[in-house]
Specification:
Blueprint (H helix, E strand, L loop, with lengths): L2 H9 L4 H27 L4 H13 L3 H10 L3 H11 L5 H19 L3 H32 L6 H93 L1
Helix pairs in contact: 2-7, 2-8, 3-4, 3-8, 4-5, 5-6, 5-8, 6-8, 7-8
Amino acid sequence: MDIQERLTAFAMLGAEWVMWLLVLLSIVVLAIVFERAYYMFATRDDFATLQAQLLKLLGAGDIEGAKKRMRASKSFEARIALSGVNAAGDGAASAEERMASESRLAKLAMERNLAFVGTVGNNAPFVGLLGTVIGVIGAFHELDQSGGQVSAGLMSEIGEALVATAIGLLVAIPAVAFFNLFLRLIKGRLMRGEALGHDVLAHLKADGAASAGASSAGASSSASSGGSKGSSKAKSKKADAEDEG
């Protein structure tokens, strides 16, 4: 038996198994969509309130209070900001790297299983097309068996072929729509997390600049005081020398 005969025998199995495969894929996609929707809902927070409270606490210099508020939130935006606040003692550069790392981890957590949804959305039409091709092969076989006459079996094969294409599209369109929706939500959350991160960095850089200014002023004051003392000593020595003379 050559390869053509083998493929023909496989096609004679019909397109029903293709349709059941598409139904199974759609069930898995729906399960992932519901799980991701619940996950995104459970990790949400009022961003405007969160940002306002963080800025208030940082402005007051209450680092511990900022940490406590970020820990109380379940949102990924708070996790990103918390990683920066935790690294406040190490400087702005270290805090920035910590937040960048946390942002990548948050992205991975939010995108879990979405690759499968995107894959199904992109390939379900082709799976449906496979069912259509199998159905057409079966239709031609039925036409050959009936001696070129249109029969009920022929119409059944053609109908099965068209249904396979329709099911493929019905599975693909919602999958692509949900995939794009979740990517948009994830992008928005990461951008809000980045906004909180910039707030933290602005505070750390302002503190660093203030500390540097204070240190510079202290050094200048010490140098000026030392210079005055040196000048006084020099004048005193000069006066002593004149008296001896």
